[in-house]
Automatic annotation (TrEMBL):
It holds the Pfam family Memo. It comes from the Bacteria. Coiled coil: none annotated. Belongs to the MEMO1 family. This is MEMO1 family protein Sfum_1298. CDD domains: MEMO_like. PANTHER family: PROTEIN MEMO1.
Length: 276
């Protein structure tokens, strides 16, 4: 892997600290305040938010605390594209991802296997330009897991049809490979605190019920919001195909709980999918 092919951080020093010690200490503090839940030994997938750590780090920690003591060698992250649209999903295949905690290497074999399927119709380099939703998950994983290999997928098409296609491909390529699935998603944006809790309550209820179709229908109809709707639905579907039959919402909060500003907030959820 050539150094010039490493994907450099675009948010270190703004969305999270660029000093390794400060970053590790901040994440450790979040994790210490989160609590583990039963069933961690049968974990298949997670949902974690992708805002700056100041706003969503406490919520994200509830997802990543479930990984303590786990032995995942591979992590597949499905994240949304915020700045560009393309007809399917794209997978970065040129090299690892650098954070202040080091370089996360790609799972070259699994990445290549995904590239050979038409559900990922080519590589869209513009999807990586300034995109934060996938990178923001990596320092938490580096602290909790230590060494692991990454499969980084960004969705440009968030239709239910493509969610289903991607979920089927994940199942096909990841079965029996000890791969952790992660959906990167925030919830509602810039509503009042009260409105946000009502909108986000619809999402959390559907996730808790493991109701993928109902969740997508509500999102599609505008009954609720999530900027990672496609990744969340795709990972829920894939987790179910890989044996998960229990869904648990681990924590919910919004930016108003952190800043005290409640006129326009962003919602965050941590969730996990287990095999029971």
């Amino acid at each position: 892997m050539c150094a010039e092919r490493i994907r450099e951080s675009v948010i270190a020093g703004s969305w999270y600290p660029d000093n390794p010690g400060a970053l590790r200490n901040e994440i450790a503090g979040y994790l210490k305040r989160a609590r583990p839940h039963p069933g961690r030994e049968n974990l298949i997938g997670l949902v974690a938010p992708h805002a700056g750590y100041m706003y969503s780090g406490e919520v994200a920690a509830h997802a990543y605390r479930q990984l303590e003591g786990s032995r995942f060698e591979r992590v597949l992250i499905v994240a949304p594209s915020h700045r560009t649209r393309f007809p399917s999903s794209t997978i970065y295949h040129l090299g690892g991802f650098r954070t202040p905690l080091g370089v996360v290497p790609l799972d070259v074999d699994l990445v290549q296997a995904f590239l050979e399927h038409p559900q990922l119709r080519g590589y869209y380099p513009q999807a990586e330009d300034q995109e934060h939703s996938l990178e923001i998950q990596l320092p938490f994983l580096q602290v909790v897991l230590g060494e692991f290999k990454l499969v980084p997928i960004i969705m440009g098409n968030q239709t239910y049809e493509h969610c289903t296609e991607l979920a089927e491909l994940i199942e096909k390529l990841c079965r029996n490979k000890n791969v952790l699935l992660i959906a990167s998603s925030d919830l509602s944006h810039y509503h009042s605190y009260r409105e946000a809790k009502q909108l986000d309550g619809i999402v959390t209820a559907r996730v808790a019920a493991f109701d993928c179709q109902g969740l997508f229908r509500d999102l599609n109809d505008g009954a609720c919001e999530a900027c990672g709707a496609g990744p969340m639905v795709a990972v829920m579907l894939a987790a179910g195909k890989l044996g998960a039959n229990v869904s648990r919402v681990l924590h919910y909060a919004n930016s108003g709980d952190v800043t005290g500003e409640r006129s326009g907030v962003v919602g965050y959820m941590a969730a996990a999918f287990y095999r029971e």
